[in-house]
Amino acid sequence: MHDSNAWVDPFGLAPTNPIDRAFLKELLGSNAKNGGVYMFRTIDVRDGVEKWYVGKANNLYSRLRTHLGTGKLDPAKLSTLNVVVLPHGVETDFFKAEANIMKRFEDAGENLANKINSPGCK
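== GIY-YIG catalytic domain-containing protein ==
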């Protein structure tokens, strides 16, 4: 259970709940160290409204664990997490995939929680 009064580590180094880490490992399976794109529901710090957040990572498990540590990925919202794995991708592939997913959300009328567009949007 997420405690809204808990201290949040802005660098994502705070210990995370073992159950949450196990969920990530179960979800990612053998793709934990692969790169790809992820999306989850989060509270947008700019307006306090729940929105989708889309990101890319060279190592999905490491990046998602960081999001858990910073509080961007609330353990209560882990069920909203979706991942697209690009097993042999490189950073350019991840940026392009992230940009494509962001565009799909925007085309569907979703206002994303992302503060900036993906460099792949260029």
